[in-house]
Amino acid sequence: MSKPPKHIWAVDNEPTTLDFALAYAKLGWYVLPVWSVDGNGDCRCGRPSNESGHKPGKHPQSKLVPHGHHDATISEETIKDWWSTDPNAGIGVSLAHSGLIALDIDPQNDGQESLTRLEAEHGVLHSECVAKTQGGGEHRLFTAEEGLSYPGTLDQGLDLKHHGYICVAPTLGVSGDYKWKVGYSPLSKSNPAKPSELPELIKGKARAPANYSLTEENGVPIATAQTFDDLRDALKYVDADDYTTWVNVGTALKPYGENGYKVWTEWSSGSDKFDAASQRKKWDRDIDNPHSITYRSIFKMAIDNGWVGKFTKELEVIAEGEHPLSLQASDHAGAKTVTVFEYIFDDFMSTGVNVVAGAPGVGKTTLIIPMALATAHLCPAGFELKPLVRRNVIIITESVVQVQRVIYSLCNWGMTGMRPEDFEDRVKVIQAHRLDPKIVAQVAAEYKEWTVPNEKANGETYDALPLVVFDTANAVFDLENENDNAQVGRAMAYIKQSFLGFPIVIVSHTAKVLGSGESDYLSPRGASAWTGDAHGVYTVFKDGDDNHAPRILKATKVRFPTTFPELTFDVVTNKEEHKNVLGYNAEIWFMHSVARVLRDGERAQLKEEIKDAKESEQWERICDDLTTLIKSDPGKSRSYYERMSLADGGVKASQERKERAIDNLISSGRIEKVMLDKPVGRANHFLRVDVVVEDSIERGKYAV
After folding, report:
1. Tell me: the pLDDT tens digits for 116-155?
2. Which of the listed ranges 103-112, 158-167, 477-486, 620-629 does the model predict with the highest average pLDDT?
3. Burial zone of 511 (CB within 10 Å; 0-12 exposed, 13-18 middle, 19+ buried)
4. CA geometry: angle 362, 367, 372, nearest 5 deg
5. pTM for the model
6. Chain centroid to CA 500: how far?
7. Rounded to an integer, what distance in angstroms lies between the CA atom of residue 436 and that of residue 9?
8. SS3 label, residue 98
9. Residue 112 DSSP one-character state
10. What share of the chain is helix, strand, coil (3-state, %, to 5)?
11. Which residues, listed in sequence order, are joined to residue 435 by a DSSP beta bridge?
């Protein structure tokens, strides 16, 4: 039998992994064998670590537990059989079967910061039973109330695990081993720890699971290509981690051959438990009762879980005996006219739902607010991007203060003659409150009433809907897991359907990436549904390393044509003194941005101009620092000054650049080169600035 690492031993006499598994079973914890890693960090299952979708270690040993954590047991006999087959197997604990919930704190995904913030607001999320994870995080264990389901996440880097499993000591992972925190082990002989009762914060998020109906009374249905598209949309709302649901979905799709298998696999691959080989085997060998449930059962599951797709209505139509795809009279009048797309910003961003993503701190709000205000015709005179259609603006933001400061900056330095009170009738700034997307969607009816009349060419009136900015998605929408396509897809469906016809901008953070800052290497953080379901996707990034470098807003996905692919924004910063809460003076920086359209070649030209200006600024600084140095310490040879460091905070300059700078200063008359009558050492001169040196002064004092 294999021995666990010494520093995680929880019982005496060097216990084996089997000893641990049996000890957990005696606690009533249902265990299962999972793959561990070898000394090189490779998974012992034999699959390459770099294989797409494969996570080394931690996944169930499918030959021993074909149904994953659903096969977990407390049977001593079964456990002994499993670990006699593989003594090196790691240990997984099926949480729901064991009546447990694990709060997974991931410090690599800002989990510790999120925990600090939540505990400051709601109190300590304490448990008596705590494990250290392989990645340096924690699993805090709590008892779960039977029959309830819980959200998948509390906040960024804080996941709630209930329906799956966790690895426990002495399992070896690719980044380290799992071990119990000292004093918090359930296997301690002297004082065994027990999972604590759920904190009120988590209790309040519990809910009864959806009651799915898996019946079909009309025999074998006929599915069309459109049906498969609708299925893909509906399956975003169905949990692929649950084994029973996984089998039921496969069963419903089995009558449709490889097309059905493709849809099933696309959906299943979103789960961490996905295994291509097991998927194929289950489809070919085990699913043999295809008529028990049908594709419409999948729609019912999705509808019960919040899906608001158009097939909801179609189900009712079918029940009345009228198929939604039946042949009907067609009106082709639309083919005789040309529809002009409606834009938020002419020829750049269309109406519909647009996602604007950028790294934290890049200045997304500073950039978006002036653009949004321009739609209300609140912009500098002659602004090139001022849209033809005027709208009101609604900004739902996590920082009202930041938006107000951008408006203040625009009024003082960007829009001559405008005052903050001029914005009151055209702009509403609302504090974001992490709401269920369904609740957010309900406000659309109120917003529809706040239109702006625009006179049409024929003298009639066009009532333009307001522009709605959600800044940021994470602040506005209460999503249990922003990486879950089902949840994100549901949020996008609510917004697209409820705010139909509105111009919408959703600000999002970008995923963590390596390499270039160009938008081709960036994507909105979270589930792919953010981009897949959006009408337009745009990325903000700095065009250079300097903090004052221009920002670029680049179109990365558009459904309507654009005249130019990107906009350039110059960042304007100013500083004022204001009284703080204690009445003392404090400096406050104000920022806004000014958008420009760059045509072919202009961006490259701009970068060269910025580079030249920066070089010029550095050159002047070097010359000024050398002049100051020579003035404060005159009478030395040029080699002396070339070897000296420049003033504190000065530009770092090579000796070659300082040589050229001294030549420039001499030729321009800013410093004087005085020749010696007799050389001192190897020097035949000295340098000075506005200093009179008497001829009688001993030459030895100079040119050292």
Report:
1. 888 888 888 999 999 998 878 899 999 987 767 677 778 8
2. 103-112
3. middle
4. 150
5. 0.44
6. 25
7. 45
8. helix
9. H
10. 35, 20, 45
11. 477
DSSP 487-543: HHHHHHHHHHHHTTT-EEEEEEEBPP--S--SGGG--BSS-THHHHT-SEEEEEEES
**Alpha carbons 104 and 125: distance in angstroms, whole number:** 12
What is the per-residue DSSP string for 258-295? HHHHHHHHHHHTTSTT--HHHHHHIIIII---TTSS-H
Q: What secondary structure letter does DSSP report for 340?
A: P
pLDDT in tens, 316-353: 333 334 443 445 555 555 555 555 667 777 667 878 88
| Beta sheet of 30-34, edge-to-edge order | 30-34, 90-94, 165-168
Q: Write the single-letter amino acid at 532.
A: G
Nearest CA-CA partner of 264 in 529, 274, 272, 301: 274
Cβ atoms of 474 and 510 closer than 8 Å? no
Nearest to 569 by CA among 370, 402, 355: 370
**Residue (of 595, 542, 548, 545) closest to 568 by Cα position:** 595
What torsion, rounded to 10 degrees, do the Cα atoms 3, 4, 5, 10 define?
-120
Check: CB of residue 163 under 8 Å from CB of residue 97: no
* Between residues 336 and 107, the one the model is more confident about: 107
Q: Helices (DSSP H) in 11-169: which residue ranges?
A: 17-26, 76-85, 95-98, 111-122
Residue 451, preceding peptide bond in cis (omega within 30° of 0): no
271 contacts: CB under 8 Å, gap ≥ 6: 240, 241, 246
- To the nearest 10°, report the CA torsion of 553, 361, 591, 410: 50
> Which secondary structure element, helix H or strand E, spans residue 580, and what is its range?
none
Task: Report CA dihedral (452, 456, 462, 467) to the nearest 10 degrees.
Answer: -50
- Is 17 in a helix, a strand, or coil? helix
Distances (CA, A) of 393 to 369, 442, 470, 503: 10, 18, 11, 10
Distance CA 449, CA 390 (A): 15
196-197 and 138-143 strand pairing: parallel
One-letter amino acid of 695: D
Name which of 272, 256, 262 is nearest 223 in CA terms: 256
Tokens 């938008």, residue located: 519
Rg, the chain, Cα only:
34
**Token pair listed for 594:** 């000014």
